[in-house]
Amino acid sequence: MVERYPLMVPGATSDRDVTVWAPWDGAEIAAVAVSDLVTVETALETANRLFRNRDGWLPVEKRIAILEKTAEIMGERFEHLAIEAAREGGKPLPDSRVEVARAIDGVKLCIESLRTQHGTEIPMGLNAASTNRLAMTTHEPIGVVVAVSAFNHPLNLIVHQVAPAVAVGCPCIVKPAEVTPLSCIRFVEILREAGLPDEWCQVTITGGREVSQKLVTDPRVGFFSFIGSAKVGWMLRANLAPGTRCALEHGGAAPVIVAEDADLPRVIPILAKGGFYHAGQVCVSVQRVFAHESIARAVAEGIAAEGAKMPVGDPTLATTEIGPLIRTKENERINEWVRDAVAAGAELIVGGNKISASCHEATVLFNPPADAQVSTQEIFGPVVCVYSYSNIDDAIARANSLPFAFQSAVCTQNLDTAMRCFRRLDASAVMVNDHTAFRVDWMPFAGLKHSGYNVGGIHHTMHDMQFEKMLVIRSPEL
């Protein structure tokens, strides 16, 4: 019998479950209780009551101790967290181990930020109106945090949304992706084991759009954190209650410019990893590679050769490099997009086929049409498109032609070429001789245009979940 996870909303009950299936083989992993409107109201009322009771706020010393213990417990359960994340989300075990290590580091980054953040002095006495005054700022939590998360990094994304809320003292309600809720549940269980009172972080798997919208758009929500599709994210932002702040992290169609002087033996394996990592189910995966016409075919064939060597299969095995798609319908969609591109004139260099109901071959397309879906939309699958160009400014214009802008890259040995691309690419980050999916958890991580709103990253999220409150003292002794 599979394990059943009850509601993590104190005082609420549920008579309905959702089943969690392994994307690799469709095996039933667990059953998780589903929240209804009554449950969501209970969670919101509890969180709001905590926030309104300033005498009951958790002191920073207590929050640091909870986070330290959380990191310690996660380290003790490292391999279990990695295997279970791989099983429910499909990310291969070696990469899931990296995710757990990053998640632990993310918790430690919260502690680091608490120990180093500080207010500032506002200059006074500069004119007659400000004499005899001293002004300074401090930080206070912004209010109830509601976090809605995605499936593709089922532990680390939750850490990025929940741990900052705990760190700054915001009551938090988190809604993980319905297909990957277990890593979230385990993390919140660890927080509670580490000393966080149950009411300060509640988990809801909502049943239906009406319930989700109630959770997000309620006027008691101070900050809304969303990771997922642009369509849903922008819709929810448009319906937020007045005063609710938010951060949205959506997807992209990450471009790479490969100049004719690029060191191909060095960068091709890097680009292949960035394109096929987690079966391409990463919001900044390498998707569109614009290579100079003198080397374009060599780039396409090189990435194809690297992809063809990557074992595809069971994500819980240490030898697997490409795991399953999260849903079989996504595998169908990706395969259809590839077939449509080939029918429209793209050259299939490698792959192009489903391996099973859940897995797809690493695929490289050469010069797909500019209006093909693989060229204009986020693929979110193990497909890399390579396009030839003759003029680098034309390549930059093509890279900038979509309504998405997130991370990008340029591969070159020439500093001037790197700087030209850096200044002209529509992107929040430009990697030089690296893939577009590079990230460490203390750096800013921001989607532009349709790709998001506000800035992610542990320190930045903690900043957004607080506000600076100013104190002005008037005294004749000043």
Structural notes for this entry:
This protein has 478 residues and is of the alpha/beta class. The chain folds into two domains: 3-250 and 451-471, Aldehyde Dehydrogenase, Chain A, domain 1 (3-Layer(aba) Sandwich), CATH 3.40.605; 255-432, Aldehyde Dehydrogenase, Chain A, domain 2. Helix content is 38%, strand content 20%. The chain contains 15 helices and 21 strands. The chain has helices at residues 37-52, 60-76, 78-89, 93-116, 156-168, 182-193, 209-217, 230-238, 264-276, 296-309, 328-343, 373-376, 392-399, 415-424, 458-464, and strands at 3-5, 17-21, 28-33, 121-122, 133-141, 144-148, 172-175, 201-203, 221-227, 245-249, 255-258, 288-292, 347-350, 363-366, 383-389, 404-405, 407-411, 429-432, 448-449, 452-453, 466-474. The strands form five sheets. It has a seven-stranded mixed beta sheet with strand order 13-14-15-12-11-17-18, with helices on both faces. It has a six-stranded mixed beta sheet with strand order 8-7-6-9-10-20, with helices on both faces. Strands 1-3-2 form a three-stranded mixed beta sheet, with no helix packed on it. Helix 14 (415-424) links the parallel strand 17 and strand 18. Helix 2 packs antiparallel against helix 4 (93-116), helix 2 packs antiparallel against helix 5 and helix 9 (264-276) packs across helix 10 (296-309). It is globular, with a radius of gyration of 24 Å. The relative contact order is 0.14.
